[in-house]
Design goal:
It holds the Pfam family Response_reg. Residues 48-164 form the Response regulatory domain. This is Response regulator receiver. One of its GO terms (cellular component) is cytosol. A 5-stranded parallel beta sheet has the order 2-1-3-4-5, with helices on both faces. The mean pLDDT is 85. It is built from 8 helices and 5 strands; from the N terminus they run αααβαβαβαβαβα. It is α/β, with parallel strands linked by helices. The chain is elongated and about 65 Å long. It has helices at 3-16, 22-29, 33-42, 59-67, 82-89, 102-114, 132-140, 153-167; strands spanning 49-53, 72-75, 93-99, 123-127, 145-148. 51% of the residues lie in helices and 15% in strands.
């Protein structure tokens, strides 16, 4: 069996049984387990990636909400700069979970907008501050959308979906 056919067979088994182990796949396809591991490691995740940055406390619920739409959601580990995170993760959308500290989120957005490499990446802000002046400041810094918390999961998924459709037609 060539690699392309093997990859297709592996994917069929994984789609039918997402919890299937590499050992089971190898057994069912009568190939060595090491070959299955190697082929799976070559698969690329083609889902759209959302990078969550910021110091807000809602990262877990945001991640869970967006994963229900099959997005690849990654939370930036502490201590990693915005540019390091964007470079490493290559996201389709940056979601700034700013909590009450909007100024830091606005700085990140301005840095992305002035970068020759990352200016095109859409940025959404989630903030507990809902006043008009905060929203205006956010849009002036270059954000694509601003959502106040607590957020409605259905609305968040819809807003993220529309931003990604507009930027990845």
């Amino acid at each position: 069996m060539n690699n392309k056919n093997l990859d297709n067979e592996i994917l069929k088994l994984i789609e039918a049984q997402p919890e299937i182990s590499e050992i089971e796949i190898a057994s069912r396809l009568s190939v060595p387990e090491e070959l299955v591991k190697a082929r799976i490691s070559n698969f690329n995740d083609t889902r759209q990636k959302i990078l969550i940055m910021g110091d807000g406390n809602s990262a877990f619920s945001i991640k869970a909400t967006l994963e229900t739409e099959n997005y690849n959601v990654v939370k930036v580990p502490g201590g990693l700069s915005s540019f390091e995170a964007v470079k490493a993760e290559k996201p389709d959308l940056v979601l700034l979970d700013t909590g009450f500290a909007d100024l830091e989120g606005f700085k990140i957005c301005k840095q992305l907008r002035t970068s020759s490499r990352y200016w095109w990446i859409p940025v959404m802000v989630l903030s507990e501050k809902g006043e008009v002046k905060n929203r205006v400041e956010a849009f002036e810094s270059g954000v694509d959308d601003y959502v106040t918390m607590p957020f409605n999961p259905v609305e968040l998924r819809a807003r993220v979906g529309m931003i990604l459709k507009r930027t990845h037609f």
